[in-house]
Amino acid sequence: MQSRFKLGFRTVSILLFIKIFLSFVCFVWLDLAFNVFLYPMQAQNLGQGHTLRNKNIVKVESPQRNTPNSPNSKKPKIISRNPSVRVTSDVRGNLGPASVIIQDPPGKDWIKDRWQAAGDMHGTAIPGQHWVILDFGSNNPRSITKVVVDWEAAYSNDYRIEISDGLETEKSSPEWCVLYNTQNKSQSTRRRVEEYGQSPGVKTKTPLHVVHTINIDGMQVNCSSFRFLRVFIRKSAMGWGVSIWELDVYG
């Protein structure tokens, strides 16, 4: 009786194993047929604008689309370091002329390669508000994405960046459209500040560069076109005459 029970159990086990094995083989064959015949037919019907991934239809862009690494992609570029761009300022100062702030390549000489609204090497500020203006001439930029002001240790935290189609004369007073204003608290997140280096003019720890990067992209302004960009400086943050190494405009 016991031997018959063992024989019956063994037979059932073998039959169950055969059934599982055959089911697995059938599943593999069905899955293979499904992937080899059905999905290629669907992919062919979808056309070149689609691809298949993990048996799900995923739309992909055309191969001609510009990507960040493709030669046809449009990246923001510096539009201010151009021989046709002219720079003026309200004061000459005691160091380099205003034109040094867009020279290409940028300079590193602490005396010759920065503009400063000061009257002497002690950094004594020339009284009043000051400005520098970039004149793009006939090459009017279509848009501006960001402005980078590379200040020296004599930086400002009270200024605005604005654009206009013309300059003030005795007969006309064109409107300046404000792109960025440090006094506008709602725009505070648009500015990033970086400091590096050591100023040779002071013994205490003082940065040689205070870089303000202002994101202009997407900002709504009233000016549809412009020729001039002005950095209007109301006040120095350090008491010295404000000083700028570089002024880069991206568009």
Question: Main traits of this protein?
Answer:
27% strand, five-stranded antiparallel beta sheet, 1 helix, 251 residues, disordered N terminus, 2 domains, Jelly Rolls, single chain, alpha+beta
Would you mind describing this structure in some detail?
The longest helix has 45 residues, at 2-46. This protein folds into two domains: 2-59; 86-250, Sandwich (Jelly Rolls), CATH 2.60.120.260. 22% of the residues are buried. Mean pLDDT is 80; it is low at 1-7 and 32-73. The protein has one helix and twelve strands. It has 251 residues and is an alpha+beta fold. The chain has one helix at residues 2-46, and strands at 50-53, 56-59, 86-89, 115-116, 130-135, 146-151, 158-164, 177-181, 191-196, 209-215, 228-235, 243-250. A hairpin with a 2-residue loop joins β1 (50-53) and β2.
Short synopsis of the structure:
This is F5/8 type C domain-containing protein. The chain is 18% helix and 27% strand. By secondary structure, the protein is of the alpha+beta class.
How is the topology of this model organized?
Blueprint: H1 2-46, E1 50-53, E2 56-59, E3 86-89, E4 115-116, E5 130-135, E6 146-151, E7 158-164, E8 177-181, E9 191-196, E10 209-215, E11 228-235, E12 243-250
Antiparallel strand pairs: 1-2, 3-5, 4-12, 5-11, 6-10, 6-12, 7-8, 7-11, 9-10
Largest sheet properties: 5 strands, antiparallel
Taking all Cα atoms into account, the compactness measure Rg is 34 Å
Identify the CATH homologous superfamily of the largest domain.
Answer: Galactose-binding domain-like
Oligomer: single chain
* Domain module tally: 2
CATH-defined architecture of the largest domain: Sandwich
CATH domain class of the largest domain: Mainly Beta
What characteristic shape results from the CA principal axes?
Answer: elongated
Percent in strands:
25-35%
Q: Give the uncertain stretches in residue-range form.
A: 1-7, 32-73
User: How do the SSEs run, as a string of H and E?
Assistant: HEEEEEEEEEEEE
Strand order of the largest sheet: 3-5-11-7-8
Structural class: alpha+beta
Share of residues in helices: 10-25%
The total count of helices amounts to 1
> Within the CATH hierarchy, at the fold level, what is the topology of the largest domain?
Jelly Rolls
| Mean pLDDT level | 80
- Beta strands, count: 12
Rounded to the nearest angstrom, the distance between the terminal CA atoms is 94 Å
